[in-house]
Every structure is written in structure tokens, then in C-alpha cells.
Write a structure and sequence with these properties.
Radius of gyration: 17 Å
Shape: globular
Strand order of the largest sheet: 1-2-3-4-7-5-6
Number of strands: 7
Strand content: 25-35%
Structural class: alpha+beta
Distance between the termini: 26 Å
Largest sheet: 7 strands, mixed
Amino acid sequence: MKARTGKRSAAKRGGAKRRGADNRGARAARTKRLYLPPPGGFGVLPFASGVLAGDTFYLAGHIGFEPATLKVPADPDQEARLLLDGVRATLAQADLAMDDLVFVQVFCTDISLFERFNAIYRTYFREPLPARAFIGAAALLLGARFELLGVAVKGK
């Protein structure tokens, strides 16, 4: 996957500094950004796998699917491993590791899998663990049981 970088000009952001705005807009205009495309096989999707803005990386939602088939495995433990392996691979593209995550949200269609997910999740991190929410969801794309998104910071 190729990452693209870019800076947004004032014209693309909507013009000059708005009245009453602080200097965040000016700082954002100077921030180099790294956009990681979604995984192959899904065609053109309207989002990036992650965006690095300055030292902060915003990880888009990831699900655990078999790369060869683009299908979610029947076993929830295998799905959790595939999910976390995919997250680790995306972070690596931005020169980050799992331990750089500071906040994670996990969406789950069956909250009875909480402990099973945690047992696998813990093996991907060292202490201190990132802040995390585990949220029940009615349904996820591709019939996934888990979806994870998060925020990482370089050199935390």
C-alpha cells in the first residue's frame, strides 16, 4: 500500500482565518499528514485506514477478516487475532506500534465475548494499556463481531 502525504491550503480549507478562530487552523495547515489507504481487495473506499497528523495517528475502524477471502472467520478468537494483526500492520506503516495507542474503542455484536476478546487483546500490549471502551453494536460490516478504532501518539 502506498501512503500519500499532503498539506491542505487555506483555499481548500475554506479560505482565510475565520473571525474569532484561534491559531489551530494555521497549525493544521503546516502539519504534514500521512494517509494510509484501506486494505486491498475492497475496491475504492471513501476513507483511509489511518491518518497521521503531526505526532497523532487516527486509526480508522478495522475488522478481522481473512486477507485471501475478505471473509470474517467463524471462530471469534481467530477474528480477534486477525483484527489486532491488521491494526498492528496499519500502525507499522506509520512507524508506530501497538504500545503507541493511547485510546481504543472496540465495537462488539456479542458482549458475552468480552473476556475472550480481552484474553487475546492483552497479548498485543505491554503496560500501561491504552484507555479503552468496549461497546455493544447491533451489526458490523461483513458480519464481523469486532471492530476497533483508536488514537496513537508517537513517542508517548
